[in-house]
Design goal:
Layout (H helix, E strand, L loop, with lengths): L6 E4 L2 E4 L13 H10 L1 E4 L5 H20 L5 H10 L12 E4 L2 E4 L7 H4 L8 H8 L3 E11 L2 H4 L19 H5 L7 E7 L12 E2 L13 H7 L1 E2 L6 E6 L4 E2 L9 E10 L12 H4 L3 H6 L5 H5 L7 H8 L10
Antiparallel strand pairs: 1-2, 3-10, 4-5, 5-6, 6-12, 7-10, 7-12, 8-9, 8-11
């Protein structure tokens, strides 16, 4: 039997899913869809409750502590020693903490700690993602960043952006498919420190730049139109991968903490190397879908067992889904 919050049939068996039908209260509204299509982003100020935001922030601090305490030349050895002291090895090799401009970055946070994994299907954000992309989705891009105050990081406080500078997500995608490029994916950024004012390492966006007629970046236009994303602790931003965006130098006395997950269609391959396992992440089929589970053929021609999110949405009579067929 298919329940509103519970079991969905998959591969001849039933497993309880973590997604509850109460999340449907956060589905993408018509006004939100119009705003996203026009501006390329949405703000969700109260995405995470205070206790979850605090746990995420504490987890990020723990993961980057060793990098902050030692010179860069000894950082890797310190991280290795810290991991060996833990009951299990938390981070795969590619998820080691590294530096990117003024930020300390955990490359694959969903492998690092369960509290970070839990964000990929958070009830206030996932319904808006499927409202834009549909149900044939998974997480293909991820990073967690801790941006230190400029005086701690050694970065020039008069600078504006980090090493990444203005960019669109997707690497060679835009170059190789041509411009205007299709959306292909969206990203959710969770902020678990106070970025409610500029100067706190805020993400900057250029509203509407996902619809610019040419892919080339007009620096004057960017300077004129760019805005800081200002959110309280626990706020989130949902943005089109094509929108121009950049992290910035943190000129405040506060440390900025954020987690980003990019969602795309399952026929797009992951930037990571690992296949998810129920042993590590639990048997929830929707979560495993978002982690990239399923057959290669099923990415293009998905059956019921490949996309349990589709069955869950059908069972709950969900509306407002992109590509519902």
């Amino acid at each position: 039997m298919i329940g509103t919050a519970g079991d969905i049939p998959i591969a001849g068996a039933s497993f309880a899913v973590l997604l509850d039908s109460s999340c449907l209260a956060y589905r993408l509204t018509d006004d939100e869809r119009r705003t996203f299509e026009e501006e390329g982003y949405l703000l969700i100020p109260d995405a995470l409750p205070a206790d979850i935001a605090a746990r995420v922030g504490a987890t990020l601090d723990r993961l980057v502590t060793w990098r902050r305490l030692v010179p860069s030349g000894r950082a890797q050895a310190a991280v290795d020693r810290a991991q060996r002291a833990l009951p299990v090895r938390l981070l795969p090799a590619r998820a080691q903490v590294h530096r990117d401009g003024s930020a300390l970055v955990v490359g694959e946070p969903l492998w690092a700690d369960r509290v970070l994994t839990d964000l990929i299907d958070h009830p206030t954000t996932l319904p808006k993602v499927w409202g834009l992309l549909g149900w044939n989705i998974y997480v293909n891009d991820q990073a967690a960043t801790v941006t230190l105050p400029a005086h701690e990081s050694g970065m020039d406080s008069h600078g504006v952006v980090t090493a990444l500078r203005w960019h669109r997500d997707g690497g060679r995608v835009n170059l190789e498919v041509g411009w205007p490029a299709p959306r292909l994916g969206v990203k959710v950024g969770f902020f678990v420190s106070d970025t409610s004012a500029p100067g706190r390492g805020n993400l900057h966006l250029v509203p509407g730049s996902h619809r610019w007629p040419v892919e080339q970046i007009d620096r004057d236009e960017v300077a004129h139109r760019a805005i800081p994303v200002c959110l309280p602790v626990g706020g989130a931003v949902l943005f089109d991968r094509r929108i121009l965006h950049s992290a910035t130098i943190n000129t405040s006395m506060l440390t900025r903490r954020a987690v980003f997950y990019g969602y795309t269609y399952r026929w797009m391959r992951s930037m990571g190397e690992r296949a998810p396992s129920a042993r590590r992440f639990g048997p929830d089929p929707i979560r495993l879908q978002l982690l990239g589970a399923g057959s290669g053929y099923g990415r293009f021609f998905p059956g019921r067992s490949d996309v349990p999110l589709r069955s869950w949405l059908a069972a709950n009579d969900a509306e407002g889904i992109a590509n519902p067929r």
